[in-house]
Amino acid sequence: MDRLAIQGGTPLSGEVRISGAKNAALPILCASLLTADTLTLSNVPRLHDVTTAIKLLEQIGVRISTRSSGADTTIELSGRDVENLVAPYEMVKTMRAAILVLGPMLARFGEASVSLPGGCAIGLRPVDLHIRGLQAMGAEIAIEHGYIHARAKRLRGARIVMDLVSVTGTENLMMAATLADGVTLIENAAREPEVVDLAKCLIAMGAKISGAGSDAVHIVGVANLHGASYRIMPDRIESGTFLVAAAATGGAVTLVNTRSGMLDAVLDKLLDAGAKIESGEDWIRLRKNGPLRAVNLRTAPYPAFPTDMQAQFMALNCMAAGTAIMTETIFENRFMHVQELRRLGADIEVEGNTAVIKGVAQLDGARVMATDLRASASLVIAGLMANGETTIDRIYHLDRGYEHIEDKLSQLGANIRRVH
Ligand code: UD1
Predict the structure, then answer these.
(1) Which end of the chain is more exposed for a tag (fewer CB within 10 A), N or C?
(2) Residues in contact with ligand 1 (CB, 6 Å cut-off)
């Protein structure tokens, strides 16, 4: 298994290109199931989760071809010969987002079988909201042998009030509703930019959607969707991760191929930490000199502070002046990085869903273990700040969601290498 070895202490400096967004690419790849025509996607990130999604779609019968030019990867997907309406356990257990094939397969073909995802490291993460929404649209759903079996001759539009704000839940139901008979209204919908990106792609495919990005999404079902070309939005979490790494190491970094408007809550916290930030249409520049200040934060659905950036800010707070209070409201077990950060000398106490971090003058390199995707990113940032060498085991978590993170960090001057 691969490891990352990091020699800490170098401020990051230079320019880095941000990849396409994982959490937009995954639902948009699944949208290819909604049409027999070809969907052409550019700015697709080269990530393990994307490879898993491609394998799953190929198994279902989507024909896929990939071409790269420079840093940009384009994928063509044709859902003309789909025949195997199953998402097996082996796929769904490695990537929960595989649940996103359920809505499209059911809407276009009238049936689908998708494995239940089971638990995952950061919390229970059920899919009851996806199931209840599809039932409200007239689907018959049976749970047997660990699989969701769904049937509906044609889904009907419905008014669906989501109990909790769910990103993939909103996306699954929005995709299903594009081909339903009549009008669907999803209330208490997720407002994440990735939901908007999916809606834009669906609209390019002929869907009638309004309100994406607000908490009420309105979809008028159509008989068919057609092919389209669509460019995936930049990854706001990768952007945020590099900005935190730059601030935490006292560096100066420019991100290109990104957008600042989707990062307001994160940029506000970086300003609180003492960073200077400038931005243009597709770039963000961060400079940091002088001491870091501790920042309090509370995760919540967009546009509030994202849970996917909580771990990275915890790493920054480990060496900031003062005490930070961080509250995680989305996932019940998303503090697994705390034990590992403590191995580097961090002073963190956890009480329920709140962590109290007292800044220390120095972290010291140690061997640590990645436990989930964003926790891994926090260990990389802590390793970049620490004295001496930090080795991170189990970095397959990192490869699920960051494209060539060690190459991009090396380009910014970090002393980091992958050990096979
Ligand atoms: C998505 C993101 C993930 C991010 C998360 C929260 C993708 C592929 N993944 O995950 O990176 O951390 O949003 O911003 O986009 N819940 C239920 N029942 C359901 C669905 C969700 O109780 O049917 C709960 C979850 O357990 C969690 C909360 O709702 O506590 C939010 O989860 P959700 O927004 O659904 O997360 P994902 O869409 O899986």
Answers:
(1) C
(2) 23, 26, 96-97, 123-130, 164, 166-169, 194, 307-308, 330-331
